[in-house]
Design brief:
By secondary structure, this protein is of the alpha/beta class. The protein folds into two domains: 150 residues, Alpha-Beta Plaits (2-Layer Sandwich), CATH 3.30.70; 250 residues, EAL domain (TIM Barrel, Alpha-Beta Barrel), CATH 3.20.20.450. 52% of the residues lie in helices and 19% in strands. The protein contains 18 helices and 16 strands. The strands form three sheets. It has an eight-stranded mixed barrel, surrounded by four helices. It has a five-stranded mixed β-sheet with strand order 2-3-1-6-7, sandwiched between helices. It has a two-stranded antiparallel sheet with strand order 4-5. Helix 14 links the parallel strand 13 and strand 14. Helix 6 packs across helix 7, helix 9 runs parallel beside helix 11 and helix 9 runs parallel beside helix 18. The chain starts with a helix and ends in an 11-residue tail after the last helix.
Length: 488
């Protein structure tokens, strides 16, 4: 039998046990809260690290962005000045990247940029930095590097980027232009060093692309001039100040004008007529060439429609740039120019160079068939200077080959010098294509081409490119060209 004292003692023990259990639960709860708190702090640190990474890295390629790249160049300059070291910055810009975006879409362009970033990483040492500055512009910081080593690095990059890139639907081959700037002036800051590399890159583009150039002080003036020309050209296009000249294309058998090639000209009040070589390459680099193409197409179609109404059927030749050929709206642009002018489609011949066609073969074939469906003629310009592959020619829905001036120059010099021109004319005959010889400057060349079976020709022997009014006057007479010698 339990006494009252014993019962009281048991009740006290039970209460004490309850208190122990409550304290243990509280401790467990506190420990759980500490774990949650520790986990929350870890997540916060991870998020902060991620945000910091995003703030200083390009989201597409995960390379350093402009802010981080500039910061590293700034610190590298400080170390070089302190320790007597040297460094170089390479500015890398992809050539004609806009063509990839226009032809394959921005998704393919993004994949290409990621792969370019990976290849650039593979060219570097562990302590070098590569960054994407925006668009298709990349930069490399090479520390403890002299100019000769920087040149070797640039060549390594050109080789790495020159290999084909596998993309959906095939492969794309691109090139890059590189500018190199070294820390040879103690008062340079990171912005000036990058600017110098950028200037050298533009010089590389102007000298043919796919190469590198080292910055020199004399480049500053040429780049300023280039920027001035670009701004003036853009304004001239907007204000429709450009004009179209026409070079007659002559029937070698009759001496009569059978058509004309439309060529854009830029009259400037301060300089007169600017040669195309001074602004067409710049227009191609900056993408302005598409607007130039469209301007020439619209203007020339209207002009030719008027001439055809007065002088009978003539064939208008208009050049297409690489940028324009691969655009998805090309056929619509051509159709609109024909519709607005009233020029029949079979009175228009669009000229495309071999190199442009081979830039993206499959897409080029699609675009050519879209154009052919409109009823226009298609010609390969400068034939013989590029790939000249019969296998490719059979896949192109073309109507004519234009023989490059290189092969016309010696056409009257005997069998050996005329061999290439003869082969092109024979090839065209096998494929049931017309031939147009370019750059005919002497009557002997015209006679030799006629003997070879070439149908049409253009060049200074017949006429230089002339304003529309001058060609209109010639068409009104439509007499055989003076000096033309026909074969006996």
């Amino acid at each position: 039998m339990v006494t009252g004292c014993a019962l009281l003692f048991l009740l006290v023990l039970v209460r004490m046990a309850d208190l122990v259990r409550e304290n243990e639960a509280t401790v467990r709860e506190l420990r759980g809260t500490e774990g949650v708190l520790r986990a929350s702090l870890s997540e916060r640190d991870t998020l902060a690290a991620q945000l910091e990474h995003l703030a200083f890295h390009d989201s597409l390629t995960d390379l350093a962005n402009r802010a981080l790249f500039n910061d590293r160049v700034r610190h590298a300059l400080a170390r070089a000045r302190r320790d007597g070291g040297s460094l170089a910055v390479l500015f890398v810009d992809l050539d004609d990247f806009k063509v990839v975006n226009d032809s394959l879409g921005h998704g393919a362009g993004d994949r290409l940029l990621r792969e370019v970033g990976a290849r650039l990483r593979g060219c570097l040492r562990e302590h070098d930095t590569v960054g994407r500055l925006g668009g298709d512009e990349f930069a490399i910081l090479a520390e403890d590097t002299d100019l000769d080593t920087a040149r070797m690095l640039a060549q390594r990059v050109l080789t790495a980027l020159g290999a084909p890139f596998p993309l959906v639907g095939g492969q794309v081959t691109i090139r890059a232009s590189i500018g190199i700037a070294s820390d040879d002036q103690l008062d340079l800051d990171e912005a000036q060093l990058l600017r110098n590399a950028d200037i050298a890159m533009y010089v590389a583009k102007s000298r043919g692309k796919g190469i590198y150039e080292v910055f020199q002080g004399s480049m500053l003036r040429s780049v300023r001039d280039r920027h001035d020309v670009h701004a003036a050209l853009e304004g001239a296009i907007e204000r429709r100040e450009l004009v179209v000249h026409y070079q007659p294309i002559v029937d070698l058998h009759t001496g009569r004008v059978a058509g004309a090639e439309a060529l854009v000209r830029w009259p400037r009040p301060d300089r007169g007529l600017v040669p195309p070589v001074e602004f067409i390459p710049l227009a191609e680099e900056t993408g302005l060439v598409v607007e130039l193409d469209r301007f020439v197409l619209r203007q020339a179609c209207r002009q030719m429609a008027g001439w055809n109404a007065d002088a009978g059927p003539l064939l208008l030749h208009v050049n297409l740039s690489a940028h324009h050929l691969l655009r998805s709206d090309l056929a619509a642009s051509v159709a609109a120019a024909l519709g607005d002018s009233g020029l029949p489609p079979d009175c228009l011949a669009l000229e495309i160079t071999e190199s442009v066609l081979m830039h993206d073969l499959e897409l080029a074939i699609v675009r050519l068939h879209e154009l052919k469906a409109l009823g226009v003629h298609l010609a390969i310009d400068d034939f013989g200077t590029g790939y000249s592959s019969l296998a490719y020619l059979r896949r192109f829905p073309i109507d004519a080959l234009k023989i490059d001036k290189t092969f016309v120059d010696g056409v009257a010099g005997g069998p050996e010098e005329s061999a290439v021109a003869r082969a092109i004319v024979a090839l065209a005959g096998t494929l049931h294509l017309d031939t147009v010889a370019e750059g005919v400057e002497h009557p002997e060349q015209a006679a030799a081409l006629t003997e070879l079976g070439c149908h049409l020709a253009q060049g200074f022997h017949f006429s230089r490119p002339v304003p529309a009014a001058d060609l209109a006057a010639r068409l009104a007479d439509q007499q055989p060209m003076a000096g033309l010698r026909h074969p006996a």
